[in-house]
Write a structure and sequence with these properties.
The chain has 109 residues and is mainly alpha-helical. The chain has four helices and no strands.
């Protein structure tokens, strides 16, 4: 039985795959299954911001995980943490710049 929720999930997976393929990463990226070990996503993050997601960060992602779900989950947790940390740091940086500009504008008006 095929329901709307599983259709939406499949469409989201395919959309994510299509977007990720635009980055031309080194790891195989032909199916949604290729995304389950986290290697492709880690390489995409490095292309998005190679300074933040540097080689040291990328090397913490295990490449040869096979069907070991524990290693896959570990990789995906590292990716989630990296995204959350990155988002927090970028938002803090933007907030500080915005605050600084606001104060400067107030001082010179």
């Amino acid at each position: 039985m095929f329901n709307v929720e599983s259709l939406e999930r499949a469409e989201l997976g395919e959309s994510l795959l299509t977007w990720i393929q635009t980055f031309n990463v080194e790891a195989p990226c032909q199916t949604v299954e290729d995304l389950t070990n986290g290697v492709v996503m880690a390489q995409v993050l490095q292309k998005i911001d190679p300074t933040y997601f540097d080689e040291n960060w990328l090397n913490r992602i295990k490449r040869e995980v096979g069907d070991n779900w524990r290693l896959k989950v570990s990789n995906l947790k590292k990716i989630l943490k990296g995204i959350l940390d990155y988002n927090h740091e970028v938002r803090t940086y933007i907030y500080n710049i915005s605050l600084s500009l606001s104060i400067t504008c107030l001082l010179y008006t």
